[in-house]
Specification:
The protein folds into 3 domains: about 1-100, no CATH class; about 105-185, no CATH class; about 185-285, no CATH class. The chain has helices at about 1-15, 25-40, 65-75, 80-100, 100-105, 115-125, 160-165, 175-190, 220-225, 250-270, and strands at about 45-50, 50-55, 60-65, 105-110, 135-140, 145-150, 155-160, 190-195, 205, 235-240, 245-250, 275-280, 285. The N and C termini lie far apart (about 85 Å). It is globular, with a radius of gyration of 25 Å. The protein is α+β, with helices and mostly antiparallel strands and about 290 residues long. The longest helix has 19 residues, at about 80-100. A 6-stranded antiparallel sheet has the order 8-9-11-10-12-13, with helices on one face.
Length: about 290
């Protein structure tokens, strides 16, 4: 009987019927967090969801996606230690990238939909394909696009898809630009000037440098700590690059007046962006409706 049991166990090992338990996505995520706590004790990572972590490296936000790593683990083409080491190397490479002068020079700029459409049309006329547009951009909503520039003391130029690929910052470029913008605002100084509405609610004009006013749209932390008082959620009007009005979603008189002022500025100022107001809903800037 004992021989029969031993033969049965040996047979299970030989046929592969007896295998180690494969970790779930949750278990894999938590195991990697523990691994990071030992390898990078000075850096804190939090779990956003299964196979996604969030941390801060060199003062920049870093989102870590583990989908591909988990697939490699499940395929058994690498050991768990090899998979984790590969992810750790990737994080360390991001840390080195974040310390470069190129990354520190990336700033966000808000552009209207028409800017992108015109750029595509010009490229098409020149014989280029749509995917060859040398501009890296992200859609914010139906009216606005987020673009990026390298802004140095010597020059300013738009960030291209090739730049993003070379620096390997596709998943982190927005966080990088936000942080750089906030640091710039702190360095140069900003103002929220309350304008005289003659009893029509409370409206502020945001002022910084005649260049990056509209970029305040994506600096959520900066807006949260701004010394302003509005009724309801902040509503931002950005008719032009250097003209931004802020009021409250529940201040009906102020939103109506701000809308009139924004329409006029949009039609008269250079570098126009949008005549509409925008309110942040669940992390997305949506067109404000009176």
């Amino acid at each position: 009987m004992k021989k029969m049991i031993l033969l049965a166990i040996i047979s299970l090992f030989a046929t592969g019927a007896y295998t180690a338990k494969v970790m779930t996505q949750t278990e894999f995520t938590m195991a990697f967090v523990q691994y990071l706590s030992k390898e990078l004790p000075e850096t804190q990572f939090s779990v956003v969801s299964d196979l996604r972590l969030y941390g801060s490296v060199n003062d920049y936000e870093l989102n870590v996606f583990l989908d591909n790593a988990f697939d490699v683990y499940v395929s058994e083409s690498q050991t768990i230690n090899e998979v984790f080491q590969s992810q750790l190397n990737s994080i360390k490479n991001h840390a080195k990238t974040f310390a470069t002068e190129d990354v520190k020079a990336i700033m966000p700029v808000i552009k209207p939909k028409e800017y992108i459409l015109n750029a595509r049309a010009q490229m098409a006329e020149a014989g280029y394909q749509e995917d060859e547009l040398p501009l890296y951009y992200e859609k914010l909503n139906e009216d606005l696009f987020l673009m990026y520039v390298f802004d140095t003391t010597e020059s300013m130029r738009f960030v291209s898809p090739e730049d993003v690929e070379k620096l390997d910052i596709k998943s982190s470029i927005e966080g990088i630009a936000k942080r750089n913008m906030e640091l710039y605002f702190e360095k140069i100084g900003t103002r929220f000037d309350e304008i005289d509405t003659r009893g029509n609610g409370r409206i502020y004009m945001f002022a910084v440098d005649e260049n990056y006013e509209a970029s305040v749209l994506i600096t959520n932390n900066f807006l949260k700590h701004a010394n302003i008082t509005v009724e309801g959620e902040p509503v931002l009007f950005l008719p032009a690059r250097n003209f931004v009005l802020i009021t409250g979603s529940k201040d009906s008189k102020a939103t109506r007046l701000a809308s009139v002022l924004a329409q006029k500025a949009y039609s008269e100022l250079g570098y126009s962006i949008s005549p509409y107001g925008y309110v942040n809903q669940a992390g997305q800037w949506q067109r404000f409706k009176q």
